[in-house]
């Protein structure tokens, strides 16, 4: 190891990715791995993943690392007896067409798009594929169209340039084989305030497009083209928010067409947002689904005399929609989670439909800010948002929750497992109106459907248990109680229940059961083989929760704790049956300020010295732990733990043999016995539907319900990254943490609906039908006099953006307070600050103010605000001081009571008091200073126009220490240590070091790390408690948050260890599939200086390969000794163990 990260030579770096990029830039459902397979191919910004569709789940089969930043993918359908191909293009405009055969990837074509404009346009890449003629059209890089012909013009390596329209909204090849054989391409082109529908023929001789049809004045709300395969005359559907236009084959013979000549179909419901994705049904091309920008899903059926459009429901805003089969879809979102879902008919109302989420792929971006919330446990907070889809997430290491097996059934409501012996489990699955049973082999996983005498199969099962001594099953349904065993002693419906009242069940795990229904309890003792039914007892109040003591050795039949409806008191009773049933009151306890109680459990102590504990949970997510002894009663003190928000229940489980209490709620967690007053590890799963534990062969299993699926899982002491996420209807740009109150203060922006109004300004010349329900955003009831004037007036009176300061409680993960800034003022930055001799929680906010009284409104001013968080239970935000400045406050950093702010051409230092900001010093040597970070007595300032500067902040002064001047811009800056600084530019990290000349000190770029993603924020530290001592040569580290939703950790690494790992990485890299022509050998990349860091993603990818493949890649020839021990590798297994260790670095 080395001291404080100092090396004899230049610094070397290693990058690990705890959270990979989650931005999906394309999805295709096809037959990729074989002609009969069902694959979902997902393209992320840095990789391609292939999933297999099996039943109700997606299973990851393949993963490819192209080694560059991807831009788009598209499926190329092949013949029925051949697997499909995938077209992929990267951000450097290189493309390839690849397939999969005999377990290996192969490439059908590779090439480039030669364009002087090396940036994707704002509207994105548009790609159209013509499977019949093998043509691919691409636009979105410049004002030209690029065409690839993989059948006829195979001698052309690169895409052929053809001048085309400038602003293409959507395009598609159309089948015109009914009349001619030419390839025609339809485009929706934007011209100022309207669209044109244009159809072109490709002319290779002149490298041009010949226009064969042009229809002007298409309304601006039309955004998508759909060309169904059922037509071969060029028929195209133009989809809009108010209507759908149909271009028929006969229109091609007419001249001077306008939109009024097209067939127009009014929609039954208004689509208030532009349509962004379409998916034809695989089995029926005349039916398709589409989604609008607000996430509303529709289906459309092409009929003989029109199109029938139906609203299905709300999903996440979807950039790519894929129909898998029947009623199953996959929706890829670029701003929220991507989901696999099914569309089901509502059982109660067949006219309505339900959307059931089957699986999801989380999206954690775009990340705009990051903060180390808990330095001891390395808990990191991230925030972001795009289009009023903001989020705030806590990222940390948590124990893993591994699924052993699962069961899927439509409408699954409850699921119970009864271990019969070491070989078989008996399973009970309950839907809303029936129960099914089967036997599961624990060794083979085989399932055998079986029915048992005496069980009620025509009702919903609420509880099932098994008493081994008497081999008796105990079943409670919403109708009654059934008791049966394998000896056919049957007590079917021995007690009818009233399902209008709450039914709760408990057992002492020794044959005694209590069923509470309304205000009555029914008592059963399965140890009495002659008469298992003990009797009943009535209370004055209805029961909401009951639990029996799991302990023996008492004279009474059983003890139980109970909570009555609308009563905060806890009551303990005992049951005696000497002379009939006697229920005696034993003890009572009162909890102050408790909410509505949801659950009560009685846990016996671990030994004689350990008292029992009664845990009471309410609907606010609080758990109350009260010690209790049967002889001495309740103890006066109790512990209150805020577990989460929402209804909470508890049950006992085991983690690696250690007794624990599981907290079942929307964000489940657990706590070891008697350690619940500390932090509760969260599992990032929702167990609010149903959860309980059972033991099988000394293993504690937990069953929980999730989207019609019962998952049987177990807890481990291994750690994995988990997320505690709060979604909010704002875009969060910056935030700061207050450890005293455990709250986050975030800067939030909420855009107005003006952009949605604008999309509705057109197409009001025809009478409107009687529209159905309005979707998500308001739509106007238009008069027939002057519709456009009405809408224009609304737009004029609409505020464009509202800015807020939002206070989020981390105890409950919800917004507790909010402060709205005045109109035309936007908060840009926020930092915590200390005020001497004051113990409150203070923050400084920098804002920008737009001047509206000018001829052209512009941002010229700003403010500094001092905010205090007040209150214990009900927190509030109060403005304590403010200062107006003649510039927007782009970024701030704080040192004790001093504020250093970047303001366009200056950096200023203020001293903060409770009622003022006093200017101490200003430095005017910038053009547009918009980033600042402080480390010790140095500050790094990023100027978006020209420079990166290092400043000293001593003695109330700000002085320039050194500077790098160029015009590359930046997205983030940070100070690595006293000698090394970081600037991030688009997809690259610049490592800056100081160089001294005779005249002045300056900065120089010593390394350029091409990481392929855009870094928006950098902090010191890493995620979670990780034992870094296992990794020899590791030094200081930083965590970087990216636009694509990934978190990356940059480590300083010893040069000798760097050289060793680079040799291993090079061997892996050189065996990767070469997707693009620019994929050069690792040695060439090192010579060119393009690969100057160790990337552990290659190690992770390597460990997923088959053993023989891994052994073939890492041959021992050329492998130097391990730098840590100087061990010479004579066995492959030794080398793989070391590589496996490095692959697990986050």
From TrEMBL:
GO BP term, pick one: proteasome-mediated ubiquitin-dependent protein catabolic process
A cellular-component GO term for this protein: nucleus
Name of the protein in question: DNA damage-binding protein 1
InterPro entries: Beta-prop_RSE1/DDB1/CPSF1_1st, Beta-prop_RSE1/DDB1/CPSF1_2nd, Quinoprotein_ADH-like_sf, RSE1/DDB1/CFT1, RSE1/DDB1/CPSF1_C, WD40/YVTN_repeat-like_dom_sf, WD40_repeat_dom_sf
Primary location recorded for the protein, binned into one broad class: cytoplasm
Subcellular location: Cytoplasm; Nucleus
Domain RSE1/DDB1/CPSF1 second beta-propeller residue range list: 429-654
Entry GO MF terms: nucleic acid binding
Ranges for domain RSE1/DDB1/CPSF1 C-terminal: 803-1075
Domain of life, source organism: Eukaryota
Family: Belongs to the DDB1 family.
Assigned keywords, A-Z: Cytoplasm, Nucleus
